[in-house]
């Protein structure tokens, strides 16, 4: 009977986990290990680009790649993990509850955006969390020009000044001017709880974000907290109302709720603590990766962020190690020493930094060119070619 590696999720981490596991089993000429990806659809949804236009195009089919690498795909949505029984209950494409057993489990179900902590946010705010919700936002923005001119129509409020909030806010001024026309007078307001712009970033990076915001005409409400979202806009904690028919929620990212079904330590975002091999302590047969894993990236104690940059490498290592544990070969210690930030700043350009200290290396057009290369080429799946796929799935080759 074949042994099975079951991977939950087909995002960046899940896809690369499957390819890496397939690579190692192929190198050892083992046909008795089956690699199966369980996910709602056989496609990579390029979530980091959901703030852009034409969201429906930001998907990449995975079946051609899985077919040439020998990865099985099982369509469905995981609902319950039985770690003791080594099985996963899932809802299949026919909406039936069924079960899949495993010898090794890789949890790569990503993260989601919580909007239930502020009154009205779930009902009235837009978000970029999933393809469907990003499409809803894009359709709404494209129809703004058909609405009567008003302060609410012309004002977009972005709740949260983190990475996603900054990218969507800086993307909007040019797009809104094209949609609303010359008389539209669009406003983009970022509401941020922190007292400085880009408070999580280095001073040099904050200065660039501030400069871009000023040139693009983006308004920041610092030290502000959203108390309520309704059909007319938002109400801040100090009582101020900002009229807006377009409120975009970008804060409150949490790891997939499936992590709560594993009796192990989790962090404040719900991520499972993992060891250096990306195993969940106490479970030799359960691994976590991507946004559901709290993993140490280097000997300095830096922790992987919930970004595709880390998910891609985490996936390569976890797939290798899950397969290695069945093959009886030594696992690899996950390490991702190099860290960069490449932040899109809309019509102003972009900014690129290196290191956890976020030293600014490129800005404006030069950084924009690099950003476009990363988001349109580097983060996409490899070609549906077995040799190329396995070469790029090697965690050590990719690491070097």
TrEMBL record:
Transmembrane feature ranges: none
Annotated family: Belongs to the NADH dehydrogenase family.
UniProt keywords, alphabetically: FAD, Flavoprotein, NAD, Oxidoreductase, Signal
FAD/NAD(P)-binding domain: residues covered: 4-312
GO MF terms held by the record: NADH dehydrogenase activity
Annotated Pfam families: Pyr_redox_2
Lineage: superkingdom: Bacteria
Organism: Dryocola boscaweniae
Protein's name according to its UniProt entry: NAD(P)/FAD-dependent oxidoreductase
